[in-house]
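Input C-alpha cells:
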C-alpha cells in the first residue's frame, strides 16, 4: 500500500525542472571495438561467433555497470559488435534475421529456439532481461527475398541491412530499424522502403531510432521529429570526426539544440579512424566525451528530463499548445523544433529585448549602431540595410573593407572575411546567403587569425546534400589558406552575435570551445527581418568554432 501511494504521489507532482519527477536515467557506451583483422575474408559462422563474443562480453559488463547506476535505457554504438570494412560476401556469416516486432512478438532470451542463427539477438535480449533495462544495439541484419516477387531483391537473394534493435527490460524485441542513409557501406543495402522506427517505454514515453549518417538527412530524421512528434532519439553511430564543423559531439550537440530533442548518442572508439565522441544531450545540458587517445571504452550515465509530449501531459495534467510538434507549454519546456527566442535555461522568460530593427538590444548596440556593412563578396548593400548606398566611392586605407577571400572548409569553397580588429561588425555573402557578425575578442588580432565564412550550395564530397552555413572559425595558421583547417585548440575568447538570412528553418546552432568544450547560445532566435541569430558572451575557453549550420533538404536533388 505504501508503494502504491508513493507511485501515485510521483505521478501527481507537477513537472518543474529537469531533475525532478518527469525524468529518467539514460546511459550510452562508447566502445573500443575488437575488430576482425581481415574483414574482407569469408570465415565460418563459428569463427564469427567467437569474434563477436569478444565485443558482447564487454557489452555484458557495461550493461551491468549501467544498471548498478540506475540506468533505465542503454545505447551501444553502430558496428560495435562486428566491426566494419566488410564486403558483401564476407559479412554474410555475421548476418542474423531480425523479425519485424510489429508483426512478430518475440523474446529471444525466453524463446531462443524460435529462429535459427540468432545468437546475437539472444545475447542482447538476455542482457536487457538480466539488468532490467531497455537496451539498444546495432548489428548486421538479414532478410531473404525472391526476385520473382520483389523486383528490388539483390541478385544473391537476400537483403543485408545495417540494423538497430531495441529490447524492453523483460528482453522482448520492441523495435527494429534498418539504416536509410548508408555511408560507403558496400556490405549493406538501402532498405526498399524508408522506415520510421519508434518504441515506447513506461518511464519516458516514445523514442525514435536513427543511425549515424541519417542525422544529416530529411528522412527518417525530420519524419520522426516533425511528422511524428518524437522528442527523444536513440542514436548508434560510427562517426569519423571532421573539424571545424562536423566533429561527432559537435553535430550531436547542435542537432539536439536546434531540433529541441534529447539525443542518446553512442559512438565507437577507433582513434586510428578518427572515431570518438558520444553523449547524452538535451536542448539545455549534456554529458559527453571525446577521446582520440584513450585505449578503453567509456560509459556515460545521466538523469535527463522526459520530453515526450504525451508523457508530459499525463504527468502534468496539461496538454501542449503547439500540436504534435510542440512540447507542453504548461510543463515549462515550451521549445518546439527549430523555434527561436530561446534562452539558456528551460522555463525562464524567453522575452528578448530588441531594437527598432528587431535585433537584440544590450551589449551589441554600440556595434550595431555603426550600420550593417556591405556584403563583402558582392560589394553591394546587404538586404534590409536601407541606409547603405552603393556609391562605389573609394575609401581611405583606414576605412577599407576587410579582405574577402576563399578557402576550402569541409571540402566546400567558403567565402570569408578575417577579423582584423579587437571588436567589430562584419558581413560576408555567398549567393543569396549573407552572414553578419558582431564581436569582441580577448586577444589582439595578431595573436590568432579568425574568419567569418559563408557557404551556400550543394556539398558533393562523401555525400550529397545542400547547405547554407555561417561560420566563425579559428584558422590553423596565420595565412588565409589555413582558415577551414582542423584544430581543437584556441586561446582567444570571443563574445559574439552571429546572424544569417537562411532560406530554411532547419538550422543547427553550434559553439565549440578549446579542447572540444561544447557550449550553447545565450540567446537564439529570429530578428524582425526573419534573419536567424545566436549570441554568446563570457565563454571561459578559447573559441574554436561558432556556426549556424543549415540543411536545405528540398535542394538535395536539385
Amino acid at each position: 500500500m505504501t508503494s502504491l501511494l508513493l507511485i501515485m504521489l510521483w505521478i501527481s507532482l507537477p513537472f518543474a525542472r529537469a531533475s525532478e519527477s518527469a525524468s529518467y536515467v539514460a546511459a550510452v557506451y562508447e566502445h573500443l571495438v575488437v575488430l576482425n583483422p581481415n574483414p574482407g575474408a569469408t570465415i565460418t559462422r563459428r569463427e564469427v561467433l567467437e569474434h563477436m563474443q569478444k565485443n558482447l562480453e564487454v557489452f555484458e559488463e557495461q550493461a551491468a555497470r549501467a544498471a548498478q547506476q540506475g540506468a533505465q535505457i542503454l545505447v551501444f554504438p553502430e558496428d560495435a559488435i562486428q566491426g566494419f570494412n566488410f564486403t558483401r560476401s564476407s559479412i554474410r556469416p555475421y548476418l542474423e534475421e531480425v523479425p519485424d516486432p510489429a508483426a512478430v512478438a518475440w523474446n529471444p532470451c525466453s524463446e531462443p529456439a524460435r529462429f535459427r542463427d540468432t545468437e546475437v539477438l539472444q545475447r542482447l535480449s538476455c542482457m536487457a532481461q538480466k539488468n532490467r533495462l531497455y537496451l539498444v544495439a546495432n548489428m548486421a541484419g538479414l532478410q531473404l527475398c525472391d526476385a520473382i516477387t520483389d523486383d528490388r531483391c539483390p541478385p544473391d537473394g537476400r537483403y543485408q541491412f545495417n540494423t538497430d534493435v531495441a529490447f524492453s527490460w523483460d528482453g522482448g524485441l520492441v523495435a527494429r530499424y534498418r539504416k536509410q542513409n548508408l555511408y560507403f557501406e558496400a556490405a549493406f543495402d538501402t532498405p526498399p522502403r524508408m522506415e520510421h522506427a519508434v518504441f515506447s517505454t513506461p518511464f519516458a514515453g516514445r523514442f525514435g531510432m536513427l543511425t549515424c549518417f541519417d542525422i544529416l538527412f530529411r528522412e527518417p530524421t525530420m519524419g520522426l521529429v516533425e511528422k511524428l512528434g518524437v522528442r527523444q532519439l536513440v542514436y548508434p553511430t560510427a562517426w569519423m570526426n571532421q573539424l571545424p564543423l562536423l566533429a561527432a559531439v559537435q553535430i550531436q550537440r547542435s542537432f539536439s539544440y536546434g531540433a529541441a530533442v534529447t539525443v542518446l548518442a553512442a559512438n565507437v572508439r577507433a582513434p586510428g579512424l578518427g572515431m570518438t565522441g558520444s553523449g547524452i544531450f538535451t536542448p539545455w545540458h549534456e554529458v559527453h566525451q571525446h577521446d582520440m587517445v584513450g585505449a578503453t571504452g567509456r560509459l556515460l550515465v545521466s538523469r535527463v528530463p522526459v520530453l515526450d509530449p504525451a508523457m508530459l501531459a499525463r504527468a502534468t495534467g496539461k496538454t501542449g499548445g503547439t500540436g504534435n510538434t510542440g512540447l507542453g507549454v504548461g510543463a515549462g519546456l515550451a521549445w518546439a523544433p527549430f523555434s527561436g527566442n530561446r534562452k539558456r535555461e528551460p522555463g525562464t522568460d524567453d522575452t528578448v529585448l530588441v531594437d527598432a530593427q528587431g535585433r537584440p538590444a544590450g551589449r551589441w548596440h554600440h556595434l550595431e549602431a555603426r550600420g550593417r556593412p556591405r556584403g563583402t563578396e558582392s560589394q553591394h548593400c546587404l538586404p534590409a540595410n536601407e541606409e547603405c548606398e552603393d556609391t562605389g566611392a573609394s575609401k581611405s586605407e583606414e576605412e577599407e573593407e576587410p579582405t574577402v577571400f576563399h578557402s576550402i572548409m569541409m571540402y566546400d569553397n567558403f567565402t570569408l572575411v578575417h577579423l582584423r580588429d579587437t571588436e567589430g561588425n562584419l558581413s560576408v555573402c555567398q549567393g543569396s546567403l549573407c552572414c553578419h557578425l558582431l564581436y569582441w575578442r580577448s586577444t589582439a588580432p595578431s595573436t590568432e587569425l579568425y574568419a567569418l565564412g559563408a557557404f551556400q550550395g550543394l556539398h558533393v564530397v562523401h555525400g550529397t546534400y545542400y547547405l547554407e552555413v555561417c561560420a566563425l572559425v579559428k584558422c590553423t595558421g596565420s595565412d588565409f589558406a589555413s582558415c577551414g583547417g582542423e584544430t581543437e585548440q584556441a586561446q582567444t575568447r570571443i563574445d559574439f552575435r552571429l546572424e544569417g538570412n537562411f532560406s530554411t528553418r532547419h538550422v543547427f546552432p553550434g559553439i565549440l570551445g578549446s579542447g572540444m568544450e561544447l557550449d550553447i547560445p545565450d540567446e537564439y532566435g529570429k530578428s524582425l527581418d526573419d534573419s536567424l541569430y545566436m549570441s554568446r558572451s563570457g565563454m571561459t575557453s578559447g573559441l574554436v568554432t561558432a556556426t549556424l549550420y543549415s540543411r536545405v533538404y528540398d535542394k538535395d536533388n536539385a
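Residues 1-20, 320-332, 347-360, 369-397 have pLDDT under 50 and may be disordered. Helices lie at 2-12, 45-68, 119-131, 221-227, 248-259, 309-316, 365-368.
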